[in-house]
Write a structure and sequence with these properties.
This protein is an alpha/beta fold and 810 residues long. It contains 29 helices and 16 strands.
């Protein structure tokens, strides 16, 4: 999109440099798209105009060739006008955009050239040319046409937020121009009005028209933020030269001169030569303009601010200059009043400019600061990282970055609400700053992710000490909405140049180390290249898993749970699987951790519950009164909406609470025993049974068994599978079964893979069994076939002649 009147005199489709074109094309870059013959003609015309101006300059300065006076002030000026108009018209014809603006400008310059040819080649040589003349008509016609071009261009690129600034700039320029006219141009013309009123009005219209165009140009430059490209730089020179020539002409005519002097002629020749050159300059790209970004970056803010303040300040120098002149040579009272008005307008504009500068400063500060925590944001951190990395590279030093992420923050945020999450982050910021120390830069990159840039040349061991100190700072609970919450975090450490040689690579390495710390639960880790590949695969898996949850790639397999004494299958455990696009299935061990780290565990549980209950409906429709067990995560057990989701899932399928079993682990309970207990109580009120999974491998505590609403224990396979060969494991299984029965809890043994283990569990009084001895995990269709076969053969199965278990696990 064209940005301003520059579009009128430039063509963005022509590149600045084209291979194979002579270097001279750089003077008029847009000619590079012309045929060689046409390009040479353009350069010839511009060269002739420049030569005419140079000769007139020599004549004015040194008085050379006085015999050329009439030619320079007559035909040469007319020819120069004609050549300039032709060049502008040809340039306009090559425009592909903003055609209306181009045509208006070409028509205006063409009209002025016609007037120049008529006067300089005909009317000037008449004995008594009339004033105004036909040439004046064509000359004056230029002003509304060019003014319309400026207005059209301004309207297409003005913005509401610029209206006040543009208005003030226009007021300063207008008042200054009127003051100049009243002080220096109008008096001699008014003095000459006693002789010819028509000539007075005509002569005044030229400088006034020039001033109006100048005011419009000032408004356009204000919209642009006072950014000048090559074309606008030439225009900025042309306007005052043209104004100077018209003003000098008017004053000379007022003193009975028949024509302007060579100095006036020099103004016109120079202005048209520059105009012809400006018509073939490239425009500033839209992406480079100040409107391209709402908030300038630090690199460009100064470039945008200085012209915005400096140019209006220069315009504001006009009134003081007039007042200084008045001190030595009195001006009229009208001119003095207008000068003070212009001075007041300049003062107001400077005030607006200062206000804009302060707003820009605040915007820059806001652009580099995280609003929630008050810490530097990602933009500022990356800027500082790049700067310090360059210093470290030049001094052959080192630089260490630490990535830190709060554990399970998404679950806490979803559970407690975003207000509580924001408060947690706000409290976390100052704590990290204190723990990191004054020499470190702490920034919030987004969400619950923070980055710490340590002092240059920090030792590897010192970085680890600092990371541990930061993690230890979370030992003190954070009080949010009346709750004392104890957070944990994971940190990764990477160093330049040993781990990475670029800013983005350094952060990626620190990120990899941080995820390794989450996986190992060691709190913090150094970056290690040998772990990089696996961790990167895990990060890539996170994005793929999110897409899988949106589609139908998440499936479930089922493993039977049977009574130990009767071998009757009473239920099944739903085991999640991820079917890849190539048809292969990924077991949960390969992606559950990635899902938890990415905050996708809640979505995954919802998907498994849906699929599991859908299959229960099919089983019961086929005559199998079955229940299904589903594993849960910390995020599920901390979410107050989880029981409501389960109730809705059961009710929508016409199922009671007995159709579903919820399995929890001791590590999940440890996240917040009180809150988890409340969630489990609500689930149990629905009729859903609760099983404590992997019992014996986590933070085993008899307090949990006494306080939590648990219905049964599931002994971990690590104790069950080797129990026939390991007396210690057999003793643990026996003690667990006795403890559970004393507490009126059922017991299910996982990992039963042979007949001997089943017989041993039967003798110990275990209630239920699960494992490969019954079946390997099967898909829904295969598992339904297993149930049909098991029901048909259940009567013929041998009943073990041993002590019966304490009851069904249904």
């Amino acid at each position: 999109m064209e940005s301003d009147v520059t579009a009128v005199i430039t063509n963005p489709e022509i590149p600045f440099r084209i291979t194979g074109v002579k270097s001279s094309v750089q003077l008029l870059p847009r000619t590079a798209g012309l045929r060689p013959t046409v390009r040479r003609l353009v350069y010839l015309c511009v060269g002739l105009m420049v030569a005419a101006a140079a000769i007139d300059l020599l004549h004015v300065v040194f008085g050379l060739a006085p015999s050329w006076e009439s030619a320079l002030s007559g035909p040469v000026v007319g020819v120069s006008d004609a050549l300039g108009a032709v060049l502008v018209i040809v340039s306009a014809a090559k425009a592909n955009r903003s055609r209306a603006v181009w045509r208006l400008l070409a028509a205006g310059i063409g009209s002025y050239a016609i007037g120049g040819v008529l006067w300089n080649c005909w009317l000037e040589f008449l004995p008594h040319p009339s004033t105004p003349s036909i040439a004046d008509f064509f000359w004056l016609s230029m002003y509304p046409l060019v003014g319309a071009a400026l207005v059209v261009s301004a309207r297409s690129h003005s913005r509401d937020q610029d209206s006040q600034r543009v208005l003030m700039d226009g007021l300063v320029a207008t008042s200054g121009a009127v003051a100049l006219c009243a002080a220096f141009i109008a008096p001699p013309l008014i003095h000459a009005a006693q002789r010819d009123h028509g000539a007075l009005v005509t002569d005044l219209m030229y400088p006034v028209g020039d001033m109006i165009l100048g005011v419009l140009a000032v408004a356009l430059l204000s919209v642009r933020g006072w950014r000048l490209d090559r074309a606008w730089t030439l225009l900025a020179i042309i306007f005052p030269i043209w104004l100077l020539g018209d003003s000098a002409w008017a004053m000379q005519i007022s003193h009975d001169a028949s024509s302007g002097s060579s100095a006036v002629t020099l103004c016109y020749l120079t202005a048209f030569a520059l105009l012809a050159a400006a018509a073939w300059q490239p425009q500033m790209r839209a992406a480079d303009e100040p409107e391209a970004a709402a908030i300038p970056s630090t690199a460009t803010a100064g470039a945008n601010t200085h012209p915005t303040v400096a140019v209006p300040a220069l315009l504001g120098l006009i009134p003081p200059a007039i007042l200084l002149y008045d001190h030595f040579s009195r001006i009229s009272l009208t001119a003095l009043i207008l000068t003070w008005v212009a001075l007041l307008a300049a003062i107001l504009r400077i005030a607006v400019a200062m206000r804009d500068a302060m707003v820009l400063r605040d915007a820059q500060r806001a652009a580099h600061t995280d609003e929630l925590t008050g810490l530097p944001n990602r933009r500022m951190f990356l800027m500082q990282l790049n700067q310090r990395l360059k210093l470290a590279e030049s001094g052959r030093g080192s630089l260490t970055a630490v990535m830190l992420d709060l554990d399970n923050f998404k679950q806490l945020n979803d559970t407690l609400g975003h207000d509580a999450g924001d408060e947690l982050l706000r409290l976390t910021g100052p704590r990290l700053v204190r723990a990191a120390g004054p020499d470190s830069l702490v920034a919030r990159l987004g969400g619950d992710e923070f980055a710490i840039l340590l002092a240059p040349n920090c030792l590897r061991g010192d970085a680890g000490v600092m990371a541990q100190r930061v993690l230890d700072s979370f030992n003190e609970p954070l009080k949010v909405h009346g709750l004392a919450l104890r957070l944990t975090a994971s940190a990764g450490i990477a160093t330049y140049p040993s781990d990475a040689n670029a800013p983005d690579t350094l952060l990626k390495c620190a990120d990899v180390a941080m995820y390794e710390a989450k996986r190992s639960r060691h709190g913090w880790e150094y970056y290690a290249a040998d772990r990089d590949v696996n961790t990167r695969e895990r990060l890539e898996m996170t994005g793929e898993l999110s897409d899988a949850l949106e589609g139908e790639e998440i499936e479930v397999a089922f493993q039977a749970i049977a009574d130990t004494d009767t071998r009757l299958i009473r239920g099944a455990e739903a085991l999640v699987r991820w079917r890849r696009p190539d048809g292969t299935l990924r077991p949960p061990g390969e992606f559950l951790e990635a899902a938890e780290l990415a905050g996708l565990s809640r979505q995954l549980t919802r998907r498994v519950v849906k699929l599991a209950l859908d299959n229960v409906c099919e089983w019961r429709a086929a005559g199998h009164v079955m229940s299904v067990a589903v594993n849960t995560t910390v995020a599920d057990l901390l979410d107050e909406a989880f029981p409501d989701e389960i109730e809705m899932a059961l009710r929508s399928r016409g199922l009671g609470g007995d159709a579903l079993k919820i399995e929890v682990t001791e590590s999940s309970i440890m996240a917040n025993p009180t809150r988890v207990g409340e969630i489990l109580e609500r689930l149990r009120a629905l009729g859903v049974r609760i099983a404590l999974d992997d019992f014996g491998t986590g933070y085993s505590s008899l307090t949990h068994l006494r306080q939590l609403p648990v219905d049964r224990l599931k002994i971990d396979r690590s104790f069950v599978t080797p129990m026939c060969s390991q007396p210690t494991d057999a003793a643990i299984v026996y003690a667990t079964i006795e403890l559970a029965h004393r507490l009126n809890l059922g017991v299910i043994a996982e990992g039963v893979e042979d007949e001997d283990t089943w017989q041993a569990l039967l003798e110990l009084g275990c209630d239920g069994i699960q494992g490969y001895w019954l079946n390997k995990p099967l898909g829904p269709a295969a598992f339904l076939e297993l149930l049909d076969c098991h029901l048909a053969e259940s009567q013929s199965l041998p009943t073990p002649a041993s002590t019966a278990s304490r009851g069904s696990i249904a």
